[in-house]
Specification:
By secondary structure, the protein is α+β, with helices and mostly antiparallel strands. It has two domains: 8-158, no CATH class; 172-276, no CATH class. Helix content is 29%, strand content 24%. It has helices spanning 39-42, 75-85, 104-121, 139-158, 211-223, 246-254, 260-263, 272-276; strands spanning 8-10, 20-23, 29-35, 52-59, 65-72, 89-97, 125-126, 176-180, 183-190, 193-196, 201-203, 227-229, 234-237, 241-243. It has a seven-stranded mixed β-sheet. The longest helix is centred in the middle third of the chain and has 20 residues, at 139-158. The radius of gyration is 22 Å and the shape is elongated.
Length: 292
């Protein structure tokens, strides 16, 4: 079960698109969100001079969203270094202790654990060239760090970066299905879009009318290893992938323009539109649907 939380987001300069500081007031961890354009101002803040673990987020030239996880004894210094050496990132999220309790060993362990979790979640492509080293800390310290990590996880997701939010799967009998020609894929409508599960089959040859819009997306998914070629006509989802909308998910599966709200169907034949966007008439009694 999830636990209700109250999260405070402070705008130090009053700009909602500038630096934002998120915290659960009863916890000792805070996350400072730093747009790259506001790096100089952010680095003047005392929080960033502390020991911490940080994340860089941005897109590559091919449009792939990626992340980098690191740690530093002075996060402001490290971010300035990355500003000179890494071109692709647009946002940084820095996690520090409000009571300045983090040590080098603490953040190295959090960096290692965060790296493992981002890989396992599969939502972001990791830019790290090497696997972070796992520091040796006591069992009791690990327990405390996992509590801190839970706070970190909630805060970065609240700020719009669900690095650690696992894609919840449902049984095959409850999944939505999209079929066409040789394509057959299963998926689920979730909080931040539509997930197509690993193992699904997509048509490979894109319809001429949709090629201009869809070819770059298909290419990016192939480059990222989300899709892999099976033969001249089909592709396979090598890993689960979250699309921004049901329609983009259906279009990639069917290799043509598609309205995902009607292409994705539940096992009983109802479309996603009928279940999620159905509005009862004035004389109808709404029905509670158990869809897993």
């Amino acid at each position: 079960m999830t636990t209700p939380r109250t999260i405070q987001i402070f705008l130090p300069d009053g700009n909602p698109r500038g630096v934002r500081i998120a915290e659960i007031t009863s916890r000792t961890v805070k996350v400072v969100q730093v747009p790259r354009a506001h790096l100089d101002a952010a680095c003047e803040r005392q929080e960033l001079a502390n020991v911490g673990v940080y994340f860089l987020v941005g897109e590559t030239d091919s449009g792939l969203t990626q992340a980098y996880v690191g740690e530093a004894e002075d996060c402001a210094v490290r971010l300035r270094q990355h500003n000179k050496t890494k071109d692709w990132w647009t946002m940084a999220l820095v996690c520090v202790s409000k009571t300045q309790d983090f040590t080098k060993a603490h953040v190295k362990y959090l960096e290692w654990f965060a790296h493992q979790e981002i890989l396992a979640t599969g939502r972001f492509r990791l830019e790290n060239n090497t696997v972070p080293t796992k520091s040796h800390v006591s069992e009791s310290v690990v327990a405390d760090l996992m509590d801190h990590f839970d706070t970190l996880r909630i805060l970065v997701s609240t700020l719009g970066y669900p690095f650690f939010d696992r894609i919840q799967t449902v049984s095959v009998a409850e999944r939505l299905v999209c079929k066409g020609k040789k394509a057959q894929a299963y998926g689920e409508y979730i909080d931040d879009g539509f997930v197509v599960f690993a193992g699904g089959i997509a048509n490979r040859e894109i319809a001429a009318s949709a090629k201009a819009n869809m070819q770059p997306v298909q290419t990016r998914l192939l480059e990222a290893g989300v899709l892999e070629a099976l033969d001249a006509e089909t592709l396979r989802f090598a890993k689960s992938h979250v699309f921004p909308s049901p329609s983009q998910a259906a279009a990639i599966v069917l290799a043509r323009s598609a309205n995902g709200w009607v292409e994705w169907k539940y096992p009983d034949g109802r479309t996603l539109d009928e279940v999620k966007r159905y509005v009862p008439g004035p004389d109808e009694t709404p029905t509670c649907l158990n869809l897993g």
